[in-house]
């Protein structure tokens, strides 16, 4: 019965660009989706902030008369937000 010899120590060389630089990943455009719900805010900004402040995963800011609530679900390897949502409570 013939056996096949495989050299486990041999490594294939990857094609590299100038000066041995690793190939760069292709840039992909971010996909953004959004929607708007027409509603009237009945609570004061301070009451909304007080209610949401116990949720440590939310970031809360004030932008003029609006309360901005940011929820970052995940980040990329560079620690930039990858999957997130922004709520404007006007």
Secondary structure layout:
Blueprint lengths: L44 H8 L5 E6 L2 E10 L5 E9 L1
Antiparallel strand pairs: 1-2, 2-3
What does this structure look like?
This protein has 1 helix and 3 strands. With 90 residues, it is mainly β. The chain has a domain at 37-89. A 3-stranded antiparallel β-sheet has the order 1-2-3, with helices on one face. Strand 1 and strand 2 form a beta hairpin. It is elongated, with a radius of gyration of 25 Å. The termini are far apart. The mean pLDDT is 81.
Report the count of strand segments: 3
Would you identify the regions where 5 or more consecutive residues have pLDDT less than 50? Answer: none
Q: Specify the number of helices.
A: 1
Mean of pLDDT: 81
Estimated helix fraction: under 10%
Radius of gyration: 25 Å
Largest sheet: 3 strands, antiparallel
Q: How large is the share of residues in beta strands?
A: 25-35%
The succession of helices and strands, N to C, reads: HEEE
Query: Biggest sheet: strands side by side, in what order?
Result: 1-2-3
- The first-to-last residue Cα distance is 78 Å
Supply the helix-strand structural class: mainly beta
**What is the 3D form?**
elongated
Keywords:
90 residues, mainly beta, 3 strands, 28% strand
Structure summary:
With 90 residues, this protein is mainly β. 9% of the residues lie in helices and 28% in strands.
């Amino acid at each position: 019965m013939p056996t096949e010899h495989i050299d486990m120590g041999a490594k294939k060389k990857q094609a590299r660009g100038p000066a041995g630089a690793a190939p760069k990943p292709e840039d992909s455009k971010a996909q953004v989706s959004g929607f708007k719900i027409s509603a009237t805010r009945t609570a004061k900004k301070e009451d909304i902030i007080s209610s949401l402040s116990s949720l440590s995963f939310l970031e809360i800011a004030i932008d003029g008369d609006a309360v901005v609530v940011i929820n970052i679900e995940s980040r990329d390897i560079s620690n930039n937000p990858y999957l997130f949502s922004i709520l404007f409570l006007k």
